[in-house]
Write a structure and sequence with these properties.
Strand content of chain A: under 5%
Helix content of chain B: 55-70%
CATH topology of the largest domain in chain A: Rna Polymerase Sigma Factor, Chain: A
Structural class of chain B: alpha+beta
CATH class of the largest domain in chain A: Mainly Alpha
Number of helices of chain A: 11
Strand content of chain B: 5-15%
Structural class of chain A: mainly alpha
Distance between the termini of chain B: 30 Å
Helix content of chain A: over 70%
Radius of gyration of chain A: 18 Å
Bound molecules: zinc ion
Number of domains of chain A: 2
Largest sheet of chain B: 6 strands, antiparallel
Number of strands of chain B: 6
CATH architecture of the largest domain in chain A: Orthogonal Bundle
Oligomer: heterodimer
Largest sheet of chain A: none
Radius of gyration of chain B: 26 Å
Largest interface: A-B, 77 and 69 residues
CATH superfamily of the largest domain in chain A: RNA polymerase sigma factor, region 2, helix turn helix motif
Number of helices of chain B: 13
Amino acid sequence: MSVSDQDLIRDACQGSASAFEQLVTRYDERVLAMAYRYVGSRDDAKDIYQEVFVRVHRALRNFRMESEFATWLYRITANVCLTHRAAHRRRLETTGSGADDDVLGSLHSTEVSAEERMHAAEISESVTRAMQRLSPQQKLVFTLRHYQGHKLREIASMMECTEGTVKRYLFAATQRMREELKELVHQ
Amino acid sequence: MNHQDWIEKLELSLYGELPAEDQERLNAHLDSCAECRAERTSLEQLHTLLEGTAKEAPPAALLMDARRELRLSLSKEREGSPAAAWLQGLFRAPSFLKAGVAFGGVALLAAGVLIGTVWSGRRVEGPPVEAASQQSQPVGGETKITNIRFITSDPSTGEIEFAFDAIKPVRMKGHINDEQIQRVLSHAIMSEQNVGVRLASISAVSSTRALPDKEIKGALIAALESDENAGVRAEAMKALRGYTPDKDIREALLFVLTHDKNPALRITAINSLDSTRTTGQVLDENMLNILRQSMQSDDNNYIRLRARTVMEEHRQ
Ligand SMILES: [Zn+2]
């Protein structure tokens, strides 16, 4: 039998570091993946990861046990992503695309030729760069739908808005992405 | 149904989120409309392109790294050591500001900027600010070095790595509408370790007549939803009253109503929600559902009653 989130939260609030760590490892891959997709660079993704869990750690005592931890956590992640943009913009300006190494480094590539790998890396980089042109909300919805595979209904509850709003962000994001990537799309 | 409507249906269909009956109507339309068929082809190409990139997970090493840094940060925080600034230094934006704030329409901030970070043999990592202070003379003028930590040492090569905080006092003065000032304020609201400073920053925002920008609004919402200090959360809620109660703000209030353990804050949240009614804004179905839950399950009597009233009033 596994321990419930609620039990871990209770223990963590009483000062148990290992309970908090267990809680973190239940969800942190998702948080990191979301952040990584959202910002498109390792350093920024790590920044977001840290900020989310430090906030969670500090605020855990305010968490209302009757509500669901995952919703609360993802909501905080969404908040941190949305307020992270200023710092990220500065980094992009100073380093150009800011994504090359990351994207190359994350490709699983044993069966493909060097050329294909290069091509895949270029696409990946273009996608990452195109995403940075979306508004923060569009980018978040796009990340959650495309890369995290959440249903629109789930995204709406995560962002605490209506499905209609989520759809609007998604449609706008798709149009923008298609525009940004039209060279690649029509190859 | 106009063309745009069909295109939206098409997108939903590609995401597998179009109800079956709509799908049938869409298929029939596609048979007769060349323009929509072309649109479908183009969207499919986009999806294929994106799918290729969707399998990339963040590198495993990144997760390990992030966990290690988090563990370090949290153990520092638990010790309550003077590492607070360093903790922020690990993951904050390039400027770290310890702010003492005094406000009118104009902001005056006395701030310490964290400039030094990790030294490793030849290499110096750090935020790309104040480059001059990062090399062999990291200290100068008023810069203060504190909190030196040794990270690794390798006797075989003689290489050592350590980290420290170099805090340089900075004074800033400017209008609340100044972007730089807003950035500092958002940062102070979101990330400042000292509760007093977070409170002062938020009060500074509420006491100005000028309408600060979206970034500050975002920081206030984030503080309202996840600051560990109830006083700061309350102050953030108060500051948000200065804004037109738009969707973001109503959602944040509902979030507090659902997730905040503190009943006083939940009560203020529901009262604030109620007062947004006077601006003629309506609550959508999703928001009403959240209210319904509070009406049924909040352990606080008053909140259950208020939730009912607010729901009924918004229904009219
Ligand atoms: Zn058509």
